[in-house]
Amino acid sequence: MNNSIPAITFDNIEKNFGSLKVLKGISGEINRGEVVAIIGSSGCGKSTLLRCFNRLETINAGHLTVNGIEIHTKKFSNRQLRQLRTQVGMVFQQFNLFPHLSVLENLTLAPRKVLGKTPKESAQLAGLYLEKVGLFDKASAYPEQLSGGQKQRVAIARSLCMNPQIILFDEPTSALDPELVGEVLQVMQQLAAEGMTMVVVTHEMQFAREAAHRVIFMDQGIVAEQGPAFQVISHPQSTRLRTFLSRLNAV
Question: Which of these, 1, 99, 171, 206, is most buried using a 10 Å CB contact count?
Fold first, then answer.
């Protein structure tokens, strides 16, 4: 894949839920190797935008291209969807682990079913990424035996097992107790340092300031402000962004 071509481009995209306009014609791009944090108040459209990037939501208007795949077209096929999902990982707020499967089984399922890996290849891959997130010793455990932070680290490892070119994070720490947030952010910062293309919907302003290259501030379905992470968070230009950050004690 040509690194000069953006990982994601979105042009004047709109998303409606009935009469409610959630995304109101927004445009932008995510470059390869870039970490972009999307911030904003609840209901501003940031999670909806993220879910459009892997077609968990379909847009109503505009153009959206992810990893070279045009996913705005009505002729989007199941084959293209399968291709998209192998290239774009997703880490959810509520972990979405299968409770009846062990950690190892959660990690090896998709590589076997989607990528056609052998059980041995899948297990080796799972072991590699469990070690990466510091949970190699939890391979035989079940999700109910893990803390929230451990579950989220397993979810990140599961995404990495698909060898994605882009990972989307939808408020990955918001369901965690405060003392568990750091262990998840540490893994994410490591991925960022290694050059993974990441789009992160987050309220963790310290992570955004330190790990993101760029911050997009959304407000009522539009991109209200964006720029280099430190500049946007430390020197907000709009009253709306200053108010938002002050509520989080970020400025």
Answer: 171
pLDDT at 13 over 60: yes
Lowest mean pLDDT among 78-82, 106-110, 140-144: 78-82
Give the Å distances, CA to CA, from 217 to 85, 149, 170, 229: 26, 26, 15, 10
Which amino acid is present at 136? F
Read out DSSP for 26-67?
EEEEE-TT-EEEEE--TTSSHHHHHHHHTTSS--SEEEEEET
- The identity of residue 213, as a single letter, is H
Residue 206: the pLDDT is: 87
E strands in 31-189? 35-39, 61-66, 69-70, 88-91, 166-170
The residue type of 13 is: I
pLDDT band at 74 (very low <50, low <70, confident <90, very high): confident
